[in-house]
């Protein structure tokens, strides 16, 4: 049984395997339990293995590579067109096996354990930030029912809550006063969790040369830099900076036909978290540039003069994504006054 290509439909406990030989003829259709997967592939000659980039895919990819196999991950939306019949595990495994052998298929870089750990910190932090915002809004809404309005901004809640709870003239019932105190304590705990995760990310950032390099780009701080380095991995997997920007969903979405080019808003594909960080950072740069004379003639200001601020913000985020690729792919340092014309001369 000379198997050259294998598709694995991943699951929690039961895995479906489909393999073909060098002529493309199906020679392996097998269902494996979780404990049987690695021993089975340890005894299989080295071959090309394809999997969907889903939960646990990076773990299995690393394990299978240790046994000498070539492993490639693909986005699920690129595999769906190869499913010939109704969706089931057998059809999915066959589609994965077919898709991985396509010469023009796009693959997902396999993440190392450290990359996943850093991204885990970011995802946990993001969850705590969302929970903190929701808790703050709940406190604000409950107090508004009693005619107590707190100004916008999460910082005002922590400052105003003690005086609201101690004020005996606001006619708050005792049960409600105890509830607000409980919610305020919970808000402080969420804030503490965010600060601790921020500190852990900062520690990793200071120990990573690539992350510190990206921090020098205006609009990119330690949080964004560490998330980008952990997500991108080897920047040479992308052909150019525009491909990285497209991967982040920062390029125009097309609806072209009949030779007529129609460009719409940004595609918003890829990682929403990374795109959000880049756009928020770009928005901060534009806001600061409006109040600094030395940046009055800068690139972001010139864009704002021609278009609105939101378009300028996305344009700067796109530009920063391309700069990130250039610094990581060419292992160079950020130069604020860099110009292609100067280098050519």
Automatic annotation (TrEMBL):
Residues 212-290 form the Transposase IS116/IS110/IS902 C-terminal domain. One of its GO terms (molecular function) is transposase activity. Residues 6-146 form the Transposase IS110-like N-terminal domain. One of its GO terms (biological process) is DNA transposition. Pfam families: DEDD_Tnp_IS110, Transposase_20. It comes from the Bacteria. InterPro entries: Transp_IS110-like_N, Transpos_IS110, Transposase_20. NCBIfam families: transpos_IS110. PANTHER family: PUTATIVE TRANSPOSASE FOR IS117-RELATED (PTHR33055:SF3), TRANSPOSASE FOR INSERTION SEQUENCE ELEMENT IS1111A (PTHR33055). This is IS110 family transposase. The lineage of its organism: Bacteria, Pseudomonadati, Pseudomonadota, Gammaproteobacteria, Methylococcales.
């Amino acid at each position: 049984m000379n198997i050259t290509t294998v598709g694995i439909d991943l699951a929690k406990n039961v895995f479906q395997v489909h393999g073909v030989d060098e002529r493309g003829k199906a020679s392996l259709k097998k269902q494996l339990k979780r404990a049987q997967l690695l021993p089975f592939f340890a005894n299989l000659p080295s071959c090309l293995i394809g999997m969907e980039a889903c939960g646990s895919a990076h773990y299995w990819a690393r394990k299978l590579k240790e046994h000498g196999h070539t492993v490639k991950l693909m986005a699920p939306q690129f595999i769906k067109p190869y499913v010939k019949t109704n969706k089931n595990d057998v059809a999915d495994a066959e589609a994965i096996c077919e898709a991985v052998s396509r010469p023009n298929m796009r693959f997902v870089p396999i993440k190392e354990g450290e990359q996943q750990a850093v991204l885990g910190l970011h995802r946990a932090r993001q969850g705590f930030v969302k929970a903190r915002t929701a808790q703050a809004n709940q406190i604000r809404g409950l107090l508004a029912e009693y005619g107590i309005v707190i100004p916008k901004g999460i910082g005002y809640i922590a400052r105003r809550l003690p005086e609201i709870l101690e004020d005996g003239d606001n006619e708050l019932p005792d049960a409600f006063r105890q509830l607000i105190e409980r919610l305020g304590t919970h808000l402080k705990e969420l804030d503490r969790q965010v600060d601790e995760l921020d500190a852990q990310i900062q520690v990793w950032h200071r120990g990573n040369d690539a992350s510190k390099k990206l921090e020098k780009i205006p609009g990119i701080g330690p949080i964004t830099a560490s998330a980008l380095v952990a997500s991108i991995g080897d920047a040479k997997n992308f052909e150019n900076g525009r491909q990285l920007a497209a991967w982040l969903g920062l390029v125009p979405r097309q609806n072209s036909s009949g030779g007529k080019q129609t460009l719409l808003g940004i595609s918003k594909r890829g990682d929403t978290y990374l795109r959000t960080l880049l756009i928020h950072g770009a928005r901060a740069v534009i806001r600061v540039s409006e109040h600094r004379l030395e940046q009055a003639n800068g690139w972001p200001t010139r864009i704002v003069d021609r278009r609105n601020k939101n378009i300028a913000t996305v344009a700067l985020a796109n530009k920063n994504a391309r700069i990130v690729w250039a610094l990581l792919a060419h292992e160079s340092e950020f130069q604020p006054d860099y110009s292609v014309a100067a280098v050519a001369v």
